[in-house]
């Protein structure tokens, strides 16, 4: 924890932005503690532990591959259809679980928030770490699929961390909005599951976004996850997989906008959290 003998905390009215970010660095150990605690809570008293992080995306991949690959016979961008689906399932599950955990993170830590001062931004940010652990565990399924189909990714796979960073930025940006709104309007605990379910239907998880007519692709890219998923597929599948650059640029711009406005709104209302929560 923080060494009180070497750290002096000064609370001032109207602290400037740089002081706020210094406070986040000062409380980095609290960030580590909350993230580790959430990881332990996620899998505590579960029968099969970390396997839950494998079962859900695997079953999603199986169902979507049967429906869109076997029955609808949609194109697979030159890759086995299960790999096409799982390359999208990875960022989508990361995004969906991050939203769910971020939206309830402040309510779940109400006792901590109402008692002591620390930058509240640490709470939703630490909850994203748990989803990232699930993402890494789920990545083992992708490796297994590649081995099963004898699929070797191209050089593009080295760009994957950049798209993971975009996915994390999108998750945290939307998550900050939902976490702050959920403190004042508890209706959002019912809205978030609907957003996740509806988002799965309108995002290109079970199919390639290339089947969307050209005249609608830019409009379709107003869903930020379209650019994220297209980026994952471009990096993992290689070969025939292409990125629709205007749509990708629009999606990334929206991700940056969501992240910037998410931080702005969160900071604007965070001083009221202790009173409202």
How far the N terminus sits from the C terminus, by CA atoms, comes to: 25 Å
Q: Work out the helicity level.
A: over 70%
Count, helices: 12
Number of strands: 0
Query: What is the approximate shape?
Result: globular
Q: What is the oligomer described by this structure?
A: single chain
The profile of the biggest β sheet is: none
Q: H/E series, N to C?
A: HHHHHHHHHHHH
| Helix and strand composition category | mainly alpha
Strand content: under 5%
Over all CA atoms, what is the radius of gyration? 20 Å
Note poorly predicted spans. Answer: none
Q: What's the rounded overall pLDDT mean?
A: 86
Description of the structure:
- 38% of the residues are buried.
- The model has no long low-confidence stretch (mean pLDDT 86).
- Helix content is 70%, strand content 0%.
- It is mostly helical and 277 residues long.
Could you name the key traits of this structure?
mainly alpha; globular; 277 residues; 70% helix; single chain
Brief digest:
The protein is 70% helix and 0% strand.
Layout: helices, strands, pairs:
Blueprint (H helix, E strand, L loop, with lengths): L16 H10 L1 H16 L8 H20 L9 H28 L1 H4 L8 H27 L11 H25 L3 H15 L11 H7 L3 H14 L7 H25 L3 H4 L1
Helix pairs in contact: 2-6, 3-4, 3-6, 4-6, 4-7, 4-8, 4-10, 6-7, 7-10, 7-11, 10-11
């Amino acid at each position: 924890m923080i060494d009180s003998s070497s750290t002096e905390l000064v609370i001032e009215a109207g602290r400037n932005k740089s002081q706020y970010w210094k406070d986040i660095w000062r409380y980095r150990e609290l960030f580590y503690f909350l993230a580790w605690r959430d990881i332990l809570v996620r899998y505590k008293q579960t029968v099969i532990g970390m396997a839950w992080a494998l079962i859900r995306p695997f079953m999603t991949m199986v169902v979507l591959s049967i429906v869109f690959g076997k029955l609808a016979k949609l194109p697979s961008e030159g890759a086995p259809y299960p790999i096409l689906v799982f390359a999208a399932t990875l960022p989508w599950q990361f995004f969906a679980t991050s939203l769910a955990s971020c939206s309830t993170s402040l309510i779940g830590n109400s006792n901590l928030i109402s008692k002591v001062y620390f930058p509240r931004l640490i709470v939703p940010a630490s909850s994203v770490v748990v989803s990232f652990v699930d993402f890494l565990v789920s990545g083992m399924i992708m490796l297994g699929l590649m081995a099963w189909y004898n699929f070797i990714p191209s050089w593009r796979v080295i760009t994957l961390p950049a798209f993971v960073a975009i996915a994390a930025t999108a998750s945290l940006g939307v998550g900050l909005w939902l976490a702050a709104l959920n403190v004042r309007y508890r209706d959002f605990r019912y809205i978030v599951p609907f957003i996740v379910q509806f988002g799965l239907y309108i995002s290109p998880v079970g199919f390639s976004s290339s089947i969307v007519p050209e005249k609608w692709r830019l409009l379709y890219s107003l869903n930020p996850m379209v650019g994220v998923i297209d980026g994952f597929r471009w990096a993992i599948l290689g070969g025939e997989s292409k990125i629709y650059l205007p749509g990708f640029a629009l999606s990334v711009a929206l991700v940056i906008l969501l992240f910037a406005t998410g931080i702005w709104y969160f900071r604007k209302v965070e001083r009221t959290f202790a009173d409202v929560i």
